[in-house]
Amino acid sequence: MDLKSKFEQFEQLNKEAEAGGGQERIEKQHAAGKKTARERIEELLDAGTFNEIDKFVTHRATDFGIDKKKYRGDGVVTGYGKIHGRLVYVFAQDFTVFGGTMSRSNADKIVKIQELAIKMGTPLIGLNDSGGARIQEGVQSLAGYADIFYNNVLSSGVIPQISTILGPCAGGAVYSPALTDFIFMVNETSHMFVTGPEVIKTVTHENVSKEDLGGAVTHSSKSGVAHFTGDNEEQTLMMVRELVSFIPSNNMEEPPVQTTTDPIDRKIEALNEVVPVDPNKPYDMKDIIFKIIDDEHFLEVQPNYAANIIIGFARFGGKSVGIVANQPAHLAGVLDINSSAKAARFVRFCDAFNIPLVTLVDVPGFLPGTQQEFGGIIKHGAKLLYAFAEATVPKITLITRKAYGGAYDVMSSKHIGGDINYAYPTAEIAVMGPEGAINILKRNITDEKEKAEAVEEYRDAFANPYRAASLGYIDEIIYPEDTREKIINALEMTHNKRKSNLPRKHGNIPL
Ligand code: HXC
């Protein structure tokens, strides 16, 4: 074969690999409102930066006549490229080849880039769209999944791992995304469940549609499995790019810094009016968040799940932070099972990846009730306490209004390692609210006027930040208009913080 023929042969093989399962199946994929694996990678990465690995790998199975059917690449496209100029590894399951199912060779390709991503210290992004285990390969497929799970676990806290679900993801296949840091879903076209509607009908006699069982709405509002939801694939992949811009490439790096023209000493007079004088009146904590951060740019995580706590990424003076904030506009900002677990996992992500925590507190306590107690609020609330206490990143806390009871301790208080703890003059820091306290302390008073006076007396004595400040539990009481500047000062002051916990194999977070 001469050189020209060799090159022509190479071109032909490349074309075959790039055609995936063929034009007909590509059209079927498009008709279902989905893009192909390669189109998705193009969309996700900076233009022209993708380098493919293992393009010519094929499966090695022989059962059920599958050896007569081979596609170069074998149902997954893997490689590396850039997002905002920074290296990432990516795999995209190709639904046009055997339904994107997991074969031994296909798993080996994913394992290879997982290992490269760990070695090079870069994020790994998985684009999932698969019929699950390739039935013709039996236990080899299960072994492949397990190898991926194993690497997911070993990578956890070392490199950021991001999963997007862009089609079916069922059975044990859900556990790789579940082990990663963030799950993105697309409205209508992505589904995740351990057992599908048919099995559920047989076992529990429940009738449920695929969408109701495991669609994006379900997982972003009911189960809390998904962290972000896009209306379509393009929007979802843009959101992945946005997330990557906030986080470092690995646990040894600082998050990337972005230049901003938002003045660090910007005074925000409007903030003086945000927290109502009446402690029972709700307000939207996001009004504070958006006003204090750089350029009003907030990437909220799980906005539709456990809305009584807000979590997300923002920047102060160009530097990334993780924000955790009670939301008085939803269930009065109370801590319950879902909000505790939601925030705890976020705090642990930020701590693992050197992202400082800014905590905004307005919390009346833990939610009372048998549902919460039987559901284990004791252990779930403990998760948040544990996560804040073990976090060694800079921890800046601001109490805007209520900080009552155990919830005061939990919300990144001074006592569990808060580096700088601020309070507004409107803060109320005590064991409980005035009415509750007087009901216990003056239980025998029946006269309503007398009771009201006692409540007022308690309010004056305890429902303020001055007791805590006199004990050094609050470092500074600040005017709301100075919030941005004060937080930036605290972040600058803590930038070189050195703190590590005692060496141990690992802690035992209450799961
Ligand atoms: C081999 C599979 C396959 C599978 C789909 N295909 N699932 N091949 N093993 N598990 C093939 C189909 O034969 C078809 O091939 C192509 O993929 C596209 O499938 P369609 O059915 O035509 O597509 P669609 O109508 O969109 O339906 C997609 C689907 C459905 C919902 C995913 O195919 C399906 O229900 N598949 C079975 C899913 C399943 O039960 N998987 C095992 C789950 S258990 P052609 O050649 O016609 O294009 C599991 C355990 C994991 O995964 C354990 C991990 C520890």
TrEMBL record:
Domain CoA carboxyltransferase N-terminal intervals: 3-259
PROSITE patterns (alphabetical): COA_CT_CTER (PS50989), COA_CT_NTER (PS50980)
Ranges for domain CoA carboxyltransferase C-terminal: 263-493
InterPro entries cross-referenced by the UniProt entry: AccD/PCCB, AcCoA_carboxyl_beta, ClpP/crotonase-like_dom_sf, COA_CT_C, COA_CT_N
One GO molecular-function entry: propionyl-CoA carboxylase activity
BP term (GO), one: carbon fixation
GO CC annotation: acetyl-CoA carboxylase complex
Family membership: Belongs to the AccD/PCCB family.
Name the UniProt record assigns to this protein: Propionyl-CoA carboxylase beta chain
Organism: Sunxiuqinia elliptica
